[in-house]
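Quick check before the chapter quiz. The format below is the same one you will see on the exam, so make sure you can read both the input and the output lines.
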Amino acid sequence: MDDLTKLCAVEFARHIDHLLTKIRIETYSRGLEWTQEPVVGLFHRVGDEGAAAALKELDRRALAARDRFKIDGPLWAQPLPVSWNTAAP
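Here is the expected output.
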């Protein structure tokens, strides 16, 4: 992994942590004003474009990681869990 890729990964993780601490991303729904991202299963407030964009990117990265794990991961550990609900495909 090159320096730019490492820096981007660190900054993305810091952004997600910031959104979690500001209660803009949740692991469960608090009502109709929250919407769930389909892959990672995390919730954000409807209309919160920053949180929505971050979770869409997290969904994209989770799917890429799962695809890579299909190739490199052990057969007994398939598929790579990417959400709190480990039963999710």
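If your answer matched, good. The first helix runs from residue 3 to 21.
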